[in-house]
Write a structure and sequence with these properties.
The structure is a homodimer of 330-residue chains. Chain A is of the alpha/beta class and 330 residues long. In chain A, 48% of the residues lie in helices and 18% in strands. Chains A and B meet through helix 8, helix 9 and helix 10 of A and helix 8, helix 9 and helix 10 of B.
Chain lengths: 330, 330
Amino acid sequence: MKIAVDAMGGDNAPKEIVKGAIQAVKKYPHEIILVGDENKIQEFLKDEPDIKKFPLTIKHASEVIEMGEHPAEAVKNKKDSSIVVATHMVKDGEADAVFSAGSTGAAVSAAQLILKRIHGVNRPAIATPIPSPKGVTLMLDSGANVDSKPEHLLQSGIMGALYAEHVFGIKNPKVGLLNIGEEDTKGNELVKEAYKLFQDVKTINFCGNAEGRDIPEGHFDVVVCDGFVGNVVLKFGEGLALTILKLIKEAIEDGGIAAKVGALLLTPALTSLAKRLDVSEYGGAPLLGVEGCCVIGHGSSDAKSICNAIGVAANYVKGNVLEHIKIGIS
Amino acid sequence: MKIAVDAMGGDNAPKEIVKGAIQAVKKYPHEIILVGDENKIQEFLKDEPDIKKFPLTIKHASEVIEMGEHPAEAVKNKKDSSIVVATHMVKDGEADAVFSAGSTGAAVSAAQLILKRIHGVNRPAIATPIPSPKGVTLMLDSGANVDSKPEHLLQSGIMGALYAEHVFGIKNPKVGLLNIGEEDTKGNELVKEAYKLFQDVKTINFCGNAEGRDIPEGHFDVVVCDGFVGNVVLKFGEGLALTILKLIKEAIEDGGIAAKVGALLLTPALTSLAKRLDVSEYGGAPLLGVEGCCVIGHGSSDAKSICNAIGVAANYVKGNVLEHIKIGIS
């Protein structure tokens, strides 16, 4: 299996991307192609003499799509940008998957314009795994599209259920529709219409409306929403978790010796918890509904996240997600 | 000042409501009228012999609107329900404010049908205070209405800014529009249109788009969104915070003696932090845009939350919020 990695995308690119790719190529039995500025990539490879033993190669791309650029225009204009070149490798069969921690909009646009949508899929969706005490909840769409129609939500539900089954190994995954109440009369026009469509589909295990709190509590395997709502929720959760952590650290620092000793004594107990809730354990979110595997990482990804995201891409390919969606959506 | 309290609304009603009202009447110089089943209310008052010294009275109401009922229909049909009777007291000048921790939909419907909307306000909005390291962020609408139009968001922004100024004492509060990116080209149709309206209004300090993470981080004083998005975000945040706390407690319990001692040593440092982030410190969210003060509490409110929410209602009245909104919206 060959995975094309956008070496230039992300707040910490190319350094952390290259480091993550080095970790991944040592961890997984897959070939990795770093796509981007060859000189800049080499700079972070030169301190790794033993890397030559591993199947890690570079494909040069001279341009970079920056965060502020208009995604679709940038993809059209910057033909030699790392994300465009990497996505073309999947299209041309030179790679089995593409991963980028750069501009999400650019990765989505490149996938839509180059790989194209799967026949029958109206809109692709980003499926973000959110850790919960019960395992993981897949939330989609978390930002590929806004102003969704009811049928887009239904397709997201079908694709998400297939992903949860074939990648997470969850049999008959519980699918919920994100709403503001449990009753089927609740919600906005979009969700009320989508509810009816979900009820009529027998191929997925639709369990009714999910409320916001059901996502972190893990009551559903798949939670479906419009990309605007999903993106807001994701960033809110990220900000909330980071804020709580920051304030706890400050409280410990201001709390004198007792607090510091207390924190030290608690560390072992909390370390495994932190690992359980660590979003970087997943590292990447697949874009479902396009003709190929495209995995998107957080802009702030570090090497560990990058390595794990490459694992996500490999699991997508191994799980035959693309074929399952093609059959499921037709 | 007289505050009518729906004694029958909430998961822990009437017990916690009565206990909260007792705390409030001892804490604040205001008169409190408990509205609901007189016998049931008396049951929780009888162990408080000294309560006769305080201005706490009962107004009997024979019916209760339950959580599952259709709000507008229930308000129309149950004329002697506690929330309807309490709201009528505000309408008739027998009380200055109404507070309920019962069905949010019923409280909103009662306010709209009995108090009516302020002239010029198209839709009222629930303004929920969310604690942040910098103080508090007011998010509205958090669930009074869905399928908002751009002008509804604008009115929410104006009303929220006036509330932040006259109740929280924030001069020139920073107003943000909840979106999925900072740039004004981002977002769904609703938010892009609303952005233009906000830019044209000179009476508020519009600071552009807010992202999900800006709410817990406290970068804005007021964040405006559609009620569907606000409600999902609020419940998601609640679920996330509770889940993190629950898992930390479990980790401490499973962590042996070292973890337990560590937790004990940390307790003083974390107690003041917990107080800072405690949502029950606010206790209630005002419904802005109706002809009177209506404050809505969480269904799970305990006595402390109820007491604080009564304080929220008093601050609304003291801050002349109603008059300020009437002037600001015209």
